[in-house]
Prior knowledge:
It comes from Escherichia coli. By secondary structure, the chain is an all-alpha fold.
Amino acid sequence: MSTQLNPTQLAIEFLRRDQSNLSPAQYLKRLKQLELEFADLLTLSSTELKEEIYFAWRLGVH
């Protein structure tokens, strides 16, 4: 069993917990969008990630 995180697994897990009612096309579009976002986040250093979290917190994004 691999413990390595990858963008696809993170996106699927995120959508699994999301309560939105999405059509299949919307789901696939959202999945691809989340994969790209998670891929970007996984390339950040810990300091850069902390800055992103702080910035999102200041904007009220949870």
